[in-house]
Amino acid sequence: MPSLFGKKVKVIHHIDHLHPVMKLAIKTLLDSYLPDIVRGYGFRYANSKWGEPIFIPYGYLDGEYKDTLEAFEKIIAEINERKNDEFSKFKEWYPNSQFFEIYRFIQYSIPGTEEGYTPGIAVNPLMSYNYFKEGLEEVKNELQGEVIVANPALSSFTDFKFYDPIIIRKDEIIESYIWLNKYFHENYDKDKMYDEILGRRYMNIIFNFLEQFSKDKRVNQIKGGDILLIPMFIWPKNKVFGEDKIIDAWKNSILFKNAMYHEIEALPAILSNSYIDNLISEHFTKFSKIILISDKKLPQLGKCSECPSTLGNLKLSREGNFSKIFI
Prior knowledge:
Helix content: 25-40%
Distance between the termini: 70 Å
Low-confidence stretches: 1-5
Strand content: 15-25%
Order of helices and strands: EEHHEEHEEHEEHHEEHHHHEEE
Number of helices: 10
Radius of gyration: 22 Å
Mean pLDDT: 93
Number of strands: 13
Largest sheet: 7 strands, mixed
């Protein structure tokens, strides 16, 4: 029984040797951290540059649990014992970012211990991230007066007011991911283990954080202003959906038909070109300028198959590699 983190702890070499309820909790958390949704708010989960600073050996999770919520509380307690010291490593790696106590859970093993290796779970904290750095740099001199952002993708690092088409679909998003995760585990997981109670609980924790973080900047409707700023994620062709309902979009996608379930995301069905087209059609007369910025380079408007079709009806003033300005 080796000493880890200054404490004697039993080494458990496989997740199957944990109490079944803890195993169920871990397998559920591995699939419930909503990476695409946090991206839609200008966040991502920090990637470790060396090792995994916040690591919990399975031995610390040994014991009996009445349900997955109790097992989850144990996992969080173990994270809290480690986070203060180990957050400093993430801050060293990403000195210009803020970090938050929302986590991505991964399975991880430390090699070279007394037992040969020590398996467990690691967690990566949520961090603010600017997906639109180049686009914002191109248009920074244009962002004068009252700016309304068409979605929350800039909300983690700017003070602009924004409309939020994601939060209004919170229940649909959660239930869609519950459906997808259960479908995957029932059909492809030998253990058939996914707990919708804990999955729903953790996704609600994430959404509650996102909803509260920028609540003072969120507007319930787009009334008008000087600039309508539209951050646009460029999706791979296999994530461009024609349907509005998330589950319908997924079922009809190539990804679903090819069983590429871990590539399936809800955000492309929400922040779609159809959403932008409807937004522009409804609100373009309320603003002096409409500015589109993208997370990837865009061709010129006349050759831009990725661009929403309604942009062709507007008067183009200027375009860069990551932006287009209309008046």
